[in-house]
Amino acid sequence: MASVHLLLLLLLLYSSASAARGTHSPAPPQPTPHLRFKPTNGQFKILQVADMHYADGAATKCQDVLPQQLRTCSDLNTSAFLRRAILAEQPDLIVFTGDNIFGFDSSDSGRSLNAAFAPAVSAKLPWAAVLGNHDQEGTLSREGVMRHVVGMDGTLSEINPTIMVSEIDGFGNYNLEVGGVRGSGLGNKSVLNLYFLDSGDYSTVPSVYGYGWIKPSQQYWFQITSRQLQKAYMSKPQPQKESAPGLVFFHIPLPEFASFDSSNFTGIRQEGISSASVNSGFFTTMLEAGDVKAVFTGHDHLNDFCGELTGINLCYGGGFGYHAYGKAGWARRARVILATLEKTEKGEWEAVKSIRTWKRLDDKHLTTIDQQVLWCKKSTSKHALIT
Ligand SMILES: *[C@@H]1O[C@H](CO)[C@@H](O)[C@H](O)[C@H]1NC(C)=O
Ligand SMILES: *[C@@H]1O[C@H](CO)[C@@H](O)[C@H](O)[C@H]1NC(C)=O
Ligand SMILES: *[C@@H]1O[C@H](CO)[C@@H](O)[C@H](O)[C@H]1NC(C)=O
After folding, report:
1. Which residue lies with its CA nearest to atom 11 of ligand 1?
2. Of 2, 190, 283, 321, whose CB count within 10 A is highest?
3. Which Gene Ontology terms cover its molecular function (predicted)?
4. Ligand 3 centroid vs 307 CA: distance in angstroms?
């Protein structure tokens, strides 16, 4: 019954939204993206930070560390790990996938947010954040947290898309475009698309227990945005044959994260998949859109795997924060995502050729583990170098 209702809702939403489309067509994608691939190496690197659970800094003690580590461990260790990871990886963008602060233990949410994101701000790196299920438990609501975040230095986060700002569920649904190398043939196009969504906190439907989910309104926004981006990419000038790859970031894993076991994922699963107890269909929506190659979530701190289901990789970041539950002796970790462009014989940078990922552990040497290829372009252009 629940799925029938959801379908009806989706249909209703569709018809009203397509009626609205006739009156005001959505704005075209931005011609000049904030983010770009580097001309030096044709790369764009993202550092994913999941579940910092930041609260009151030095006064907030660590959870699940070894007994001898307890006395000297606080939120400041989370900040130190973030500074170290930034130095080691030199990312082009940092993405925080929710539970950035642990509102319940924070005496001032604004102050906790400032402290949590401070290493990204002081590194002067662009960063983007979405909400988890704990960010709003302190002095700020979900909207309040997102408003605070978008006011901070260096962030590219947005509260909601201008095309349906009042109709969309949640806060922090937006997309970012990563431009090709400046001056190259694809310098005016988005060659990598990043989507950010609010996966909610808890179900508000009395008959449904557990966590929230990505609502039809958000899926509809994703759908029209993906369609627009693909259209722009495949139109003149420099029309491309296939869509640019898309990466999707949110907090709560989809039920499809439970499709794997150790025979078909890279990483580890040490706890259950805490997705919503209903399936709102976002995986299918992404499959149909066709451009999404990987999804990155947090939420389950002890799971850090990536598994591929029908062409889309479903990845956990792995727990980052020290005031988040974890496993004593099992290092806190971060995920790195690296997209690399294809290069022609003439030395010109083209479209994205591959997307790789690995994790960094917060140990003495920031050990790199679980390197893997998430996606590779199938057809290389005629003039491209085969490397
Ligand atoms: C936390 O930081 C302190 C101070 O730098 C350090 O002595 C301690 O080993 C760190 N603890 C962990 C678990 O990394
Ligand atoms: C990109 O846009 C700039 C500014 O409008 C223009 O000068 C340049 O020729 C464009 N490049 C391509 C490859 O279309
Ligand atoms: C992973 O392997 C298990 C069997 O070991 C299988 O049940 C499951 O369907 C596989 N998942 C995917 C996504 O291939």
Report:
1. 73
2. 321
3. hydrolase activity, acting on ester bonds; metal ion binding
4. 10
Q: Which of 65-74, 157-166, 194-203 is least confident?
A: 157-166
CA–CA gap between residue 217 and residue 17 (Å, rounded)? 9
315 Cα to the center of ligand 3, angstroms: 16
Asked if residue 86 belongs to a domain, the reply is: yes
Q: What is the CATH number of the domain that holds 54?
A: 3.60.21.10
Q: Is residue 382 part of a domain?
A: no
Round the average pLDDT of the chain to a whole number and report it. Answer: 91
Average of per-residue pLDDT across 273-302:
98
- Which segments of the chain does DSSP mark as H helices, in order? 2-23, 75-89, 109-122, 142-150, 216-233, 282-289
Nearest to 123 by CA among 93, 100, 98, 157: 93
- Examine residue 94 and state whether it is found in any structural domain, yes or no: yes
Residue range(s) defining the domain that contains residue 60: 35-376
Write down the pTM of the prediction: 0.91
Q: What is the pLDDT of residues 7-25, one digit of tens each?
A: 434 444 443 443 333 334 4
Q: How many domains does the chain have?
A: 1
Tell whether 10 is covered by a domain: no
The protein residue with its alpha carbon nearest to ligand 1, atom 5, reads 77
